[in-house]
Amino acid sequence: MADLINEMMKNESHELRVQHLSEALPYIQKFTNKIFVIKYGGSALTDSKIAQSVIKDLVLLNSVNIKTVLVHGGGPEINEMLSKIGKEICFENGLRKTDSETLEIVEMVLSGKIQRRLVSMINCTGAKAIGLNGRDGRIIVAERLEGMPADNMVGQVKKLNLGLIYQLFDLGLIPVISSIAPNEIGEAFNINADTLCAEIAAELKAEKMILMTDVPGLLEDVKNPDSLISELSLKEAQSKIDKKEVSGGMIPKLECCINGLKKGVKEAIILNGLTDHSLLMETFTDKGSGTRISTQIQSL
Fold first, then answer.
1. Read out DSSP for 98-110?
2. What pTM did the predictor assign?
3. pLDDT in tens, 63-84
4. Please, are residues 7 and 53 in contact by the beta-carbon 8 Å criterion?
5. Tens digits of per-residue pLDDT, 174-232?
6. CB atoms within 10 A of CB 73
7. Which among 99, 82, 90 has a CA at the least distance from the CA of 149?
8. CATH number belonging to the domain at 33-294, selected among 3.50.50.60, 3.30.930.10, 3.40.1160.10, 3.40.50.720
9. Strands 35-40, 67-72: parallel, antiparallel or unpaired by DSSP?
């Protein structure tokens, strides 16, 4: 752990390093043995330099006894593979249209290529990780998303069996979970990674659910990156959706945060995974590093 911290702070003076470590102490004490469920995907996943930074942050959290679960997506790499085989890329209401052939590619990329890479990066950074999807120990049982036709294998969570996750925590392992899961008779489904993150975080009664994306967070003005909304109450977050004050991909992310909070998650955060050490800034500073939504925040 000392080597990891030294590397992160190598451009700072010894005095400044000590000051930062001292300031982090109250947060380390506050979050020791708490559970963080982190969704990681998009551009922040495909850039190797950024990915190394994110993984180092994750390993540091684990090193100070914060129990971390990593749920990952992989949209850009799935699109790349589908393009290579000449398969049409199609989305409906923000969800990937997933026929049987597309599902094979999705599972291969998520549970094979991306998950193996993330597990290896964590292991090489000094922690221990294990890759899982819903098939492993039947930790996730899926069903077809309501309203989907029989040839579209887009799923939703029907049931979670997360006893295995607690056993992995006890062994000091970081679970890395991809969003493929079977139904009761073994048919596989593709579940949106943000949605899965919220369901897992709620089931584990997580202290923090963190969606790492490629935007700063929720913006008051989408054309102004400096208009970040740093805090929202649950009521205010719902109002943003009801009044159509958010659009595009931010709508499902905000809905996932609201869903997690309603089911018992303490805080939900949308932050920029492209910003260096945004995960540590969110965890160990008052200011944070994105948009924090909590039932503890009072509406204006």
1. --HHHHHHHHIII
2. 0.90
3. 999 999 999 988 889 999 999 9
4. no
5. 999 999 999 999 999 999 999 999 999 999 999 999 999 888 888 888 888 788 898 99
6. 23
7. 99
8. 3.40.1160.10
9. parallel
